[in-house]
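Sanity check

After download, print the first record. It should look like this:
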Amino acid sequence: MKRLLIFTLGALLAVVESIAQEQTVSAQDSVATSESVAPILTNRVESPIVVDTLATDTPLMSVLLLNDGTWRYIENGVIEQDSTLFASYWDNDEISVYKDVQMSSLPKSVPIRLVDTTAIYRYPHRGRITSRYGIRHRRNHNGIDIALKVGDTICAAFNGKVRFSKCTNTGYGTLIIIRHDNGLETYHGHLSKRLVEENERVVAGQPIALGGNSGRSTGPHLHFECRYMGQSFDPERLFNFKTGELRRDKFLLRRAYFSIYSKYEQDFNAEEESYAAEKRENAASAERRYYRVRSGDYLGRIAKRNHTTVSAICRLNGIKPNTVLQIGRVLRVK
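Expected structure tokens:
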């Protein structure tokens, strides 16, 4: 399987660049026939765009080909780990589906794995922020506004499934909502064209729409929201919109963040210190070593085998040098 996959990837990666170029040329040609639709691949960003998806000989894994000549695995089975994620509160006709979920019923904090070795991300659109999360003109502004030109490409931020894709008569205008494998939902408003339909699977970096000026809008821009169980929070907690980078791989979403007055900039110092403490704890955990007692073991032998001392093992495990060791007991040795 490995040889076959390597051979397939080698052959296909050689043409990835030409495929991307052909798509760009094709998109540019379309401008000549329709002034209202701009090229799909006009958005130059650091994060790659998905060109194609390849199947492997296991249904659990696929391979993503990216337009920068690289490839990544995607784990198909991850969406089956929570069978209710794309079933509960799933409605293709309603924008707000969590109306009966009270904020007080949500946990005080939820750890969310944003990316890992199989889950990737991409900046939805790179541009200048023209309006931030918070109160605006005495009304809640539940997301951020990013400046763009009509026809600029909007991409999926994470892997997921399209829950809503419609032209609406609301302030959002043409709107796409994606529920992601990590449990978050992202809203993309004021679009000019939809490139994906409801119940369609999408991957991070896949073009989903073209930016526009539909709905209640004073000019072309992307209205981008991040929500959990219907509750919005500041998208800047996830993305650095100046660099296009994800702030961290794992995000601890606190219930307090759902307040319209809770902004990332206000909590920056506390959040960064919390993140630094988490990194220190993870580093300390990575350095810990454990040993399972086997027949004939005694503390001196265990200490010598693990390059430590008897006193250190006793201190780490709350035991004495003459403690009788049971076979199978796990001792911390580092």
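If your output differs, re-run the checksum step. Summary of this record's structure: Residues 2-33 form the longest helix (32 residues).
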